[in-house]
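Newbie here. two chains, one complex. Structure please?
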Amino acid sequence: MKQIAVISGKGGTGKTIVTASLAALAKNKIMVDCDVDAADLHLLLHPSVKERYKFRSGQTAVIDKKLCNKCGKCISVCRFGAINAGYAIESFSCEGCGLCGHICPHGAIRMEENVAGEWFISDTNYGPFVHAKLGIAEENSGKLVAKIRQIAKELAEKQALDYVIIDGPPGIGCPVIASLSGVDRALIVTEPTLSGLHDARRVIEVAKHFGISVKLAVNKYDLNPVMTKEIEAYCREGGIAVIGKIPFDKAVVKALVKGKTVIEYGKSPVADEARKIWELLEE
Amino acid sequence: MSVNMIISIASGKGGTGKTTVAVNLALSLKNVQFLDCDVEEPNAHLFLKPRIRAKIKAHIPVPEVDEAKCTYCGRCREVCAYHAIAVLSESSGKKGNVLVFPHLCHGCGACSLLCPQAAIEEADKEIGVIEIGEDDNIQFVHGRLNIGEAMSPPLIRQVKKYINPTRTVIIDAPPGTSCPVIMAVKGSDFCVLVTEPTPFGLNDLILAVEVLRKLEIPFGVVINRSDIGDGKVESYCKRENIPILMKIPFSREIAVSYSEGVPIIKKDTSYQAKFVNLYLNICGINDEANSRY
């Protein structure tokens, strides 16, 4: 069983469109949407949810107004600015360290467990799918990513599947690191822009830092052929295979509006390129 | 008329045009400070090309245990909510040991404050760099998270310490809806949500709207590439009474200009009036919101 993560550094380069195409092309696989704070893959895979679970993670402080005498000790030790002048906890700033509770001389602060989101095991036309929804303004997205990846891996092992296909988040921080850890290969999807190259370089460095093998595809490559050449030159230097150049094609948005993967939408240059990417990715 | 607002530009979905809107808005106004808070993938400098005159290393405090004072009592392990400290107690003649895992540490200070032996001091761990500079008229600050570093919010918090209240502050936020976004937009007077009229754009816009409502920050929407996709973003905004501040139709010229790192108003000056108009729309909404109190 192989785990493949699709990442990009920069957001909006086409990760989810590419992941959905791989989902349509690969056989005997499970999909995971690890972009838990702005998950979109379900809009193309149309899952029917079979199992749903609460994601409990971290704690938030709660002040008992009856016991609090407003001595100010909690405010002075909190480094996250989570306790306001009215001695109320601003839950979106509280990182759940619990220091205020330890320091309060009156035992007025207790910690409550957070329900930070929900995760799902679903069926789709393309196979099983594990996905999640982070609660509004919640943290610990990295832990939620780790959780759904572990579930997907266990399901893949149990059902003797060949691939775990991971739709990753943008950026290089905690949910990206959680999406990459232990994968067999990362596919970087980028675009021929200065930002696309700048951000791809950073996320490639992250992948290398964790010892993960990388291949790259350029989306909308014909929007700036000069920049595409620059990306190819950068990859050549770093020994990274460029396994696809996807043309700019309005069919992509049309398929998206219909909630279809580009593969099921019908024959198009984009679909052809996606097939090539899948073949070369497997090698 | 509102003066010196803090305006953040956010999106939910990545790649909808946050940086395009933030950069062109900043270039269209006078007396601006620009903060790029997308510290994982900062891009605004590629367009603004500021002269960087200061680089400041950013740190978070992590515990350092003085083993001469430590009695291996385990209090630090007990109070650490992030499992960033492990303590092996002394047993059968073997010396005890304290292990610190800096990448799990949030820098809350609980271990050092609560250690009964005062054996824990805090040492600085580098997480990234803050760069400060200027373009002709714009003061510029951004953060760059180090490769392999997981936690961006502490760096975003440190970038925001440089906010200059004598200027209009434009904050370029990271994509998403979780902690880095909240850290970036918190304290803004207004937030501009940039989206695109596709099912992905709409799905992520709805999530971003929920975040801003929870944070009680006034906001409006810019629809980028407004003539692709469908009309569902617009009907959602109407239904929810969310002001549409600006629509930017798809143009190959903008896409190419973006790809080269050139702000569109430098290629086509007619955009300046459009971005000034965006600013006036923001001021109008903000004044209206303030007059309600």
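Moderator note: The domain at 60-125 of chain B is CATH 3.30.70.20 (Alpha-Beta Plaits). Chain B touches chain A through 59 residues (CB under 8 Å). Thread marked as resolved.
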